[in-house]
């Protein structure tokens, strides 16, 4: 059942999800375009955020897929976390960031009180940021599933590149009303020739596996290491017969279900 679910895209992996009277922010990134170092390398941001952190408004929780890469948590994003009431993320992020960060291990739940007296369940789910065996290089990543009585079920993938992970989630959740999929086919010299996030074709296949009623892509533009973008997402979903489920938003736009 779909009711009162809004997703506002803010560029890159950043969005505001409003569901059950709560407002959740995904992977806060607000820095200006430029070069951002990561170890001996750097990532190039090519798009600005449509809003400043101060314009986000009240947030009940941040869903942080991981903290170790600047395209998922940048300088201004880290500053934003200092005032966030709750940040749900990985065990590694909790150890590094402290403060309001709380680890949500795979398949465990956190209950967020809703204004109507019910709860929103946030379930931590697996994410694999690259091919099999890549975690020692890329670090720990998590995804999330949002659910609750009378609410749509929403899957937020985080930086996941594995359809096996998607199949595991589909086995646990019979219904996924909206899939928020991090796409873009990210590729860097760290794992030459490998994709660190879903390709457009794999995003369409993930939507099929989940039987997702609606799909909102994130993290498919705004950084130079994305090898695919909005045009390839449109083509892949059209080829898969899922064009009517795809909601490709421009930064600052939202969709209500």
UniProtKB/TrEMBL annotation:
Keywords: Hydrolase
GO function terms (MF aspect): hydrolase activity
Domain Metallo-beta-lactamase: 23-220
Statement: the UniProt record of this protein carries the keyword Ribosomal protein: no
Cited Pfam families: Lactamase_B_2
Name of protein: MBL fold metallo-hydrolase
TM helices/strands, residue ranges: none
